[in-house]
Design brief:
549 residues; Pectate Lyase C-like; Immunoglobulin-like; 32-stranded parallel beta sheet; five-stranded antiparallel beta sheet
Length: 549
């Protein structure tokens, strides 16, 4: 796919910003450095899949460099850029914004990125100074660094930054690098970070000495008093396998500090597994200048570590980390209480975030309501399971379905002995025939929906697969197919709602569909021949012969 520069509408002024609607508009920005001090607003989701073929395989060219910094204002307005590809292994300052200085970037999502650079690599920004970022996020894969070079600073959202503020952002990118690597940010100096999180894995490898890997930040420093990381968490695994000397790995940060008491970490936690060649720690692997840590925690079971890295940080069991009172007693400001503040920064609710605390801004503005419907058409080995998702004023539900188990009374995604069945996306009602159940064993089921990366569960419903539906009572002509023979479609009579499966003469399933009154079953895809149609409904279970002309 050839690159095409298409000038966006607008003049780039604050009252008439450039309106970015297409990938060609983005390419225009990269080719027009004179615009990099302007104002931009994204007005559509952009598919950047075509960037894989750009510039002889090098992909997208970052906006801003050391010669001409990006100093503009980019407002994504909640839209996304999907499948951005950059492969510049010998180049520093890599991200959609390569080098930003005194810039403001807000409300943009970078999804499914595949980005590789040498050093100062981040999905959103490679390197920056005096930046302001809010409500931005990234998902995908980040890689960077060359063995023998100290430039391997890689972060899921930001590579390196020297001053500014970042708030209400996250990254779920899996990040791999050589020197200073963080799930959210690789390295910073004099930066305030508030209400952010990282969930991707962090991996550092190579042969360099004094390397730092952290679930949230790789190397976190300040040279003047007053900078704070607060209300943040990291949930991804952290591995530092560098063999060049001291290899530091911390669940939250590889390094925190400065030459004096200058940086504070407050009301933050981490849970990911931590491993390193010689210096793994539960929260922070190395400190300098006696940094201040206030009410910070790490899970000493899931991190596989018992030493925090700083005596002011507390290691707790998983059960304690999932207990509301643990954080209330530590002064964290939670939704529903006022003793610790009324901003309602944190929340515990409904199975979100694997039952660890999450940031209130992560939840939809209008709460998502998921209801599990009662099991129907229960048979000895099958039942129809489903749910209903209430309207959430336009917020997207990217996945929905049910989870069920015969041993776990509170089933959730990813748990042992819990089966997940995906049933599309979006709001409204849904159901599906679930087969392979064990007769006469109670099952527990609940519907779920994924919105903004979080899983919301419905109420728990139980049922026992038994032969409650009689085949004999429908052996008559109550349920029938017409017309038969059929060429393109047929109808099922005597059924209001059910499930049907069509098998060929070898017993191989060739089609599955709903059986609904006055709704045709399309069979265009079938070849001519004789088939068996199995219908399961409230009226019973019956098999009928179908001839396809």
């Amino acid at each position: 796919m050839a690159q095409t520069a298409s000038a966006p509408s607008g003049t780039g002024n604050s009252n008439d910003p450039y309106l970015i609607a297409t990938l060609d508009n983005l390419y225009w920005i990269t080719q027009n450095p004179a615009s990099w001090t302007g104002y931009f607003k994204q007005i559509e989701n952009i598919d950047a899949t075509g960037t894989t073929a750009w510039d002889n395989g090098n992909g997208f060219s970052p906006i801003g460099n050391t010669t001409t910094n990006f100093k503009g204002n980019y407002n994504g307005q909640g839209f996304t850029i999907n499948n951005l590809f950059i492969n510049r292994v010998a180049t520093d300052n890599i991200g959609i914004f390569g080098y930003a200085n005194s810039a403001t970037i807000t409300n943009i999502g970078l999804t499914n990125v595949n980005i590789t650079g040498r050093g100062y690599v981040g999905a959103l920004i490679g390197q920056s100074a005096t930046l302001t970022i809010s409500y931005c996020y990234s998902t995908g894969t980040m890689n960077g660094g060359i063995d023998g070079s100290n430039n391997g600073v890689i972060g899921g959202l930001i590579g390196n930054s020297s001053s500014g503020s970042v708030q209400y952002c996250y990254s779920s990118c899996n990040v791999t690098g050589k020197k200073r690597v963080g799930g959210f940010i690789g390295n910073f100096m004099n930066l305030n970070i508030n209400c952010c999180y990282a969930t991707g894995s962090v991996s550092l490898n190579g042969t360099l000495n004094n390397t730092y890997a952290g679930g949230f930040g790789g190397d976190c420093e300040a040279s003047i008093v007053g900078f704070v990381m607060k209300n943040c968490y990291a949930a991804g695994s952290v591995t530092n396998s560098s063999t060049g000397g001291l290899a530091y790995a911390g669940g939250f940060a590889g390094f925190i500090g400065g030459s004096v008491v200058v940086i504070t970490t407050q009301n933050s936690y981490c849970t990911g597994a931590v491993s390193a060649v010689n210096t793994p720690k539960g929260f922070v692997a190395r400190t300098m200048g006696s940094p201040v840590n206030i009410n910070c925690f790490f899970d000493n079971q899931t991190t596989n570590q018992t030493i925090a890295g700083n005596t002011a940080i507390t290691g707790l069991s998983t059960a304690e980390m999932k207990t509301y009172s643990t954080f209330i007693n530590a002064g964290w400001d939670f939704k529903g209480e006022s003793a610790n503040g009324t901003v309602e920064i944190w929340n515990f609710e409904n199975g979100r975030n694997n039952d660890y605390p999450y940031l209130s801004w992560q939840a939809p503005v209008t709460p998502l309501t998921v209801t599990t419907t009662a099991a129907t058409l229960i048979n000895s080995t099958s039942a129809i399971l489903g749910g209903k998702i209430a309207d959430i004023n336009g917020a997207s539900v990217t996945e929905r379905g049910v989870v069920y188990s015969s041993t776990d009374a509170t089933p959730m995604n990813g748990e042992t002995d819990v089966i997940k069945d995906i049933n599309g996306s979006g709001t409204g009602s849904f159901d599906k025939l679930i087969t392979g159940l064990t007769p006469n064993i109670i099952n527990y089921v609940r519907a779920y929906a994924i919105n903004a990366g979080e899983t919301i569960y419905g109420n728990i419903v139980s049922f026992t697969p038994t032969n409650t539906t009689s085949t004999a009572k429908v052996a008559s002509s109550k349920i029938a197919l017409y017309p038969t023979p059929a060429s393109t479609s047929f109808y099922v009579t005597g059924v209001e709602k059910g499930e049907l499966t069509i098998y060929d003469l070898n017993g191989r399933q060739v089609l599955a569909s709903k059986a609904l009154a006055n709704t045709p079953v399309l069979i265009n895809s079938l070849t001519q021949g004789v088939y068996t149609v199995k219908i399961i409904s409230a009226e019973g279970i019956v098999e009928k012969k179908l001839i396809k002309e």
